[in-house]
Structures are given as C-alpha cells and as structure tokens.
Amino acid sequence: MKNNNFTDYSLYFSNMMCLKKIVYIIVLILFADHLFAQSRKVQNQPYADAKLYHFGFHVGLHAQDLLLTNTGVTTENGETWFAEIPAYSPGFSVGVIGDLFVNPYMNLRLSPTIHFGDKVVYFREIAGDEEKRFSVRSNYVSLPLDLKISSMRLNNYRPYVLGGVYGALDLGRKKGNPLLMKQMDYGFEFGIGCTVYMPFFRLAPEIKFKFGLTDVLEKDRTDLTNEADKVFTNALSKATTRMIVFTFNFE
To answer: Could you write out the DSSP letters of every residue in 145-169?
Structure first.
C-alpha cells in the first residue's frame, strides 16, 4: 500500500520546482526585455542634426577679467601703485545662434552675444599701504565664429568641443573714469558642451573661455580733468581681457 504522506510531499516538491522554473523564466524574460529596451531607446529628433542650417538662442552668466601688467613706476610724490583684480564679478549674457552643417561631426557657428558686466580693479600703494577701488563697466557686443566638433550621438546626448575667434565692441565704457578701456577688442575662444535632445528642442549647457589678444588699456587720457587720476593709468603698461561664459543653448 502506497504511503499517502510520501505522495503528498513528492507532489508538493514537484509543484515547487515547477513554480521556481516559471519564476526564473519570467525574470529572464523581463531582464532580456530590459536590456533590449536599453539598446533600442527611442531617440528624440533623430534627424535634427542633418539640417543644412538652424537657429537658436542662449542665455547664461559670465565673469569678466583683465590680465594687468604693472609698470612699477614711482610718481613725483614717491608713490608706487600696483593693480589687481582679486575676485570675479558675475554678469549676464544673452545672444542668438546661427549654425551651418559642414559634415555629420562638424558645424560652423556664429553666435552674436551681449555681455553685461563689470570688473572691480584694486590699486594698492606699496609704501603707505593705501588702497583705491575702481569699477570698470563693460557691456560687450561680441561676434564669435566657432568650429563645433561633436562626438557620436549616445541615445539623447552628444558631447562636443568648439573653438574659434571673436571680435568685441565695448558699449559700456564711460570717459572720465580713472581707468578706461578701448572700445574694440578681439581674441580667440574655446569651450565644451553637451547637446541634450528633448522632444521638441535641443538643450546644450556650454562653458567657454575667451582670451583677448590686444592691449585694451587707453593710455591717452585727455578726457581726465584731474591730473591725479592719471597716476592709475600710468601705473599700468598693458591690459588684456579674459572671460568665462556659462550658457544654456536652446536650438
């Protein structure tokens, strides 16, 4: 006569093994489906980069700087002044973007931009430890021409680097200040960014570094009525611009 308890245990063990197999199969199916879904992730705007040209705009923040060369000249009063910019002052940037397709990995980019900001220059007299502080306001209209080189697209992300040259016109300078910068400037720039493909537009956080190549210090100060203010211009032999710009590009 068969043992009913043994039969019940065998049936229970067999059912548990079948249940485990079903669970394993379900897990494998879900895992395989997850991997397959990752490899075939839907791309937003798959043909956006194939356009011959497109337009956009950008907004962001920047920090202006001056690379100052001191003369170390001693005045008739026995004073020797040295200048520096110890900290950056944040400014606001806004502009438009025009992009021309060259090949799948290269684009030419023209991005006229207005930079609203200023620079705070500190002068210190070495012997007496006296200090003077001047704010040099500069609102630049910049016209950069860059070559943008992009990597392969990774789903909805595409890193890139860019570099080029720019010309700038200072609309914020004010005559009569102890320090005055020339109106025209030019230089080179480079930067990095990453294009994020959204459903209806492309968003690209970008950081650029701009380096002026010309001496922007105005040395012929016929506009100064106070001769004592010329001391600060005479304390410098050269000034070149630098700028860090962080923007969000919408294209």
So the answer is: EEEEEE---BTTEEEEEEEEEEEEE
The one-character DSSP state at 58 is E
DSSP assigned state of 229: G
Residue type, 15: N
What is the C-alpha separation between 117 and 53, in angstroms, rounded?
31
Tokens 């202006």: give the residue: 64
Which helix or strand (DSSP H or E) is residue 194 part of? strand 184-197
196-224 confidence digits (pLDDT tens): 999 999 999 999 999 999 999 988 877 77
Q: Among candidates 118, 134, 214, 133, which has minimal Cα distance to 176?
A: 134
Confidence (pTM): 0.78
- Give bridge partners of residue 163 from the DSSP assignment: 147, 190
88-136, pLDDT tens digit by residue?
889 999 999 999 999 999 999 999 999 999 999 998 888 777 888 888 8
**What is the DSSP secondary-structure string of 77-95?**
TS-BEEEE--S--EEEEEE
User: Which residue is it, tokens 């630049």?
Assistant: 140
| C-alpha angle 192-193-197 in degrees, rounded to nearest 5 | 160
Strand partners, 42: none
